[in-house]
Design brief:
Blueprint lengths: L14 H7 L19 E3 L2 H4 L8 E4 L7 H13 L5 E5 L17 E5 L7 H6 L3 E2 L7 H6 L7 E6 L7 E3 L7 H7 L2 E6 L7 E2 L2 E3 L5 E4 L14 H13 L6 E4 L3 H8 L8 E2 L3 E2 L3 H6 L15 E3 L1 E2 L3 H7 L5 E3 L2 H4 L2 H5 L4 E6 L2 E3 L4 E2 L2 E2 L2 E2 L6 H9 L7 E5 L11 E2 L8 E3 L6 E4 L2 E4 L5 H10 L3 H15 L6
Parallel strand pairs: 1-11, 2-3, 2-6, 3-4, 4-5, 6-8, 8-11, 9-17, 12-13, 12-18, 14-16, 15-17, 18-23, 19-24, 23-26
Antiparallel strand pairs: 7-10, 19-20, 20-25, 21-22, 26-27
Helix pairs in contact: 7-8, 14-15
Length: 471
């Protein structure tokens, strides 16, 4: 299939090789701009595709549903076989086994997660891998400002169209910036990758190597929502989401439950760093029509998606969905231009003054900063003054330990400061903290804590604040 699309030659985007191929004409790193006279090399072997990688290089990996699993696994095998050393792997949440981060590869590769997925938690918490705290909106700046230089990028794209354009499909996020700055780009071409609109197109002349590897995209696995999550979702849908709202939601049971409870709402819009299957039925019912949005009116805007085949089929060749760079999607000023921005995010722990932990459980790293603060802030500074920044969590862990605490666990990272927090929702109600004093915040949070913990929390609040919590 690819052979009919291009004639294979071997050349690199690195400066010294480009001087040989195009000694006079300058080339553009803009993915929408074809590079005249340049075609990538087609290979049939994944290890050959990654064989450009040398010791000491920095390699970017496309994330989430777009993880190029065939290339990633081949890189691990090739690295061990070639005895590569000190190869730094840069990525956000990826899917697949993350072979390169296993114990037996520690002398060859070191991962640096800009957002930690489940396949990297053990390595990060064992010291074999790194984590960089950073807002999703600012990850592209790392590459564009050359704070983090990239030697190689491994990505997944759709097959090229008749004009030679491929699509990054499910994940534009920070990958567009990585492609613009990487010296060498290897593309895993997958017929199951949907073609999306927005900033997702890239001409194949920007690739150095293309490998055809068709396999189903990774799918999200969500369990049945708990009773507490169902109650939280209902509270948010009934009390905080208004008709005409522009929604942002993350991954997880609570956002999915909220969406399932919005079937009687109208004129909803979506501007979200990511979205999943829950938006599809609301579009089909006409509840989501994006008609009142000010940024890309009439379109769902995201930077990546993660869901099931139903979602991937929905976004495929759908002009009503625009996938854009995270530096744009997650920009609080851009977010604030939309009406009634309602940002729904989850957290792990919150203390009685409103400090929120979202990326760790004590010293154990769990996820990352992501776009939580980007969207909470965007909702807060909304031009219409009607935004709702929402944090939601069950009041207790599965073991019955309160998630509302007098003091954060030692080592817990404050992702969202107490000055950012407005609405906090548990199954026991909604606490509104904006403009509240410390004793008032403690009072509101204790009211939505599990009843089994309220007396203890009240005593702890008095010990900490030297005054009883009160409205």
């Amino acid at each position: 299939m690819l052979a009919a699309t291009f004639k294979a030659v071997n050349c690199s985007r690195s400066v010294h090789n480009w001087q040989k191929v195009l000694p006079i004409r300058r080339f553009s790193t803009e993915p929408f701009q074809p590079i005249p006279g340049r075609v990538p090399k087609k290979v049939d072997n994944a290890e050959e595709a990654v064989s450009y990688v040398k010791s000491g290089m920095r390699v970017y990996i496309h994330g989430c549903a777009a993880t190029p699993i065939v290339l990633v696994d081949a890189l691990a095998k090739y690295g061990k076989k070639a005895n590569l050393r000190d190869v730094n792997i840069i990525h956000i949440h990826t899917e697949g086994p993350g072979t390169y981060a296993r114990e037996e590869y520690k002398d060859h590769f070191r991962s640096n997660s800009l957002f930690i997925g489940s396949n990297m938690r053990e390595a990060v918490n064992s010291g074999r891998a790194d984590f960089t705290p950073i807002f999703l909106s600012e990850i592209p700046l790392l590459f564009r400002r050359n704070i983090v230089s990239l030697d190689v990028a491994l990505i997944t794209v759709s097959p090229p169209d008749q004009h030679g354009f491929c699509s990054m499909g499910t994940s534009v996020d920070c990958t567009r910036a990585a492609l613009q700055k990487a010296d060498y780009v290897v593309a895993q071409v997958n017929k199951f990758m949907p073609r999306t609109f927005g900033d997702s197109s890239i001409h194949m002349s920007h690739f150095d190597v293309m490998l055809e590897a068709d396999l189903d995209l990774p799918k999200i696995h969500t369990g049945t929502p708990s009773k507490e999550e169902l109650m939280i979702g209902q509270l948010i849908a009934d009390n905080l989401v208004e008709d005409g709202a522009t929604l942002q939601m993350g991954i997880g049971s609570i956002p999915d439950v909220v969406l399932s409870k919005l079937t009687n709402h109208k004129d909803l819009g979506v501007h979200s760093e990511m979205f999943s299957d829950g938006v599809v039925p609301l579009v089909e019912l006409g509840c989501i029509n994006n008609s009142l949005k000010n940024v890309h009116q009439g379109k769902i805007v995201g930077s990546f998606v993660f869901g099931t085949r139903r979602l991937y089929d929905f976004i495929n060749d759908n002009p009503a969905v625009a996938m854009h760079d995270a530096q744009f999607v997650n920009n609080p000023v851009v977010i604030s231009r939309n009406p009634r921005v309602t940002a729904i995010n989850s957290c792990i722990e919150i203390d009685l003054t409103g400090q929120v932990v979202s990326d760790s459980i004590g010293t154990k790293m769990y996820s990352g900063v992501g776009g939580q603060v980007d969207f909470l802030r965007g909702a807060t500074i909304g031009y219409d003054g009607l935004g709702k920044p929402i944090l939601a969590m069950p009041s207790s862990t599965n073991k019955g330990v309160s998630k509302i605490v007098p003091f954060l666990k030692e080592g817990g990272g404050v992702v969202t400061t107490r000055a950012h927090v407005h609405y906090v929702v548990t199954e026991f109600g909604i606490a509104y903290l904006f403009g509240k004093t410390l004793r008032q915040r403690a009072y509101e949070l204790i009211k939505i804590a599990h009843p089994d913990h309220r007396e203890e929390l009240e005593k702890a609040a008095f010990e900490r604040l030297k005054v009883m919590p009160s409205p």
